[in-house]
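quick q for whoever's on today - can somebody do inverse folding on this one?? i tried earlier but teh output was garbage lol. tokens:
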């Protein structure tokens, strides 16, 4: 178990009904979060749960039971009730479809508001996996793949700029350190300088 913790210490994450999950996925399409993909995305049906330890950039940690809504070879997407800063380190633990324990690390690459208190979080894994190990071969083979995984997605120039601007506003409201603010401003400036043409022509492998 990650960090030597028992499951009882993990906070219950955003568990949704299938109807709620599918409505939120449709909302993601409308706001343009799912546009390009590097790897095929498998929409997760049912209540598959993973334990997730989040190590935040500021040094604090939190532990959640999360419910992936999609999985690809290089990423895991899940809904969360709060904004998670890109760069947050995640450690997922659980059991594979054939009941073998596993532990996978990754980094939060994006977090976007969807509706109400719901945010979608996209984590890029430190190494590629086979989604079948979590979903089973039959489920993975039949799972629909209408769009991109949040961890694989490459939003267009304007969408990414909007997301980064929202992150800066949130940092300002929370009175983040001057160093953190400067880094975010530098990231926004670099992205803005590249222009939309660079975003559209960037290789898919760099999207994640």
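ok took a stab at it. sequence:
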């Amino acid at each position: 178990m990650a960090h030597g913790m028992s499951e009882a210490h993990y906070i219950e994450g955003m568990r949704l009904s299938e109807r709620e999950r599918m409505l939120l996925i449709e909302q993601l399409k409308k706001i343009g979060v799912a546009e390009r993909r590097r790897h095929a995305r498998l929409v997760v049906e049912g209540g598959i749960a993973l334990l997730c330890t989040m190590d935040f950039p500021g040094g604090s940690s939190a532990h959640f039971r999360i419910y992936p809504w999609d999985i690809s070879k290089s990423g895991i997407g899940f809904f969360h009730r709060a904004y998670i800063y890109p760069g947050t380190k995640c450690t997922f633990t659980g059991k594979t479809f054939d009941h073998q324990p596993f532990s996978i690390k990754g980094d939060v690459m994006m977090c976007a508001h969807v509706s109400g208190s719901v945010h979608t979080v996209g984590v890029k894994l430190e190494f590629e996996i086979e989604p079948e190990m979590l979903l089973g071969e039959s489920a993975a083979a039949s799972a629909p793949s209408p769009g991109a995984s949040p961890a694989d997605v490459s939003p267009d120039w304007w969408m990414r700029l909007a997301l980064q601007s929202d992150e800066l506003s949130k940092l300002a409201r929370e009175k983040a350190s001057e160093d953190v603010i400067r880094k975010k401003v530098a990231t926004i400036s670099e992205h803005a300088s590249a222009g939309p043409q660079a975003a559209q022509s960037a290789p898919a492998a760099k999207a994640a």
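fwiw Residues 2-142 form a domain with the Thrombin, subunit H fold (CATH 2.40.10.220). also Residues 140-156, 199-208 have pLDDT under 50 and may be disordered. so keep that in mind when u check it
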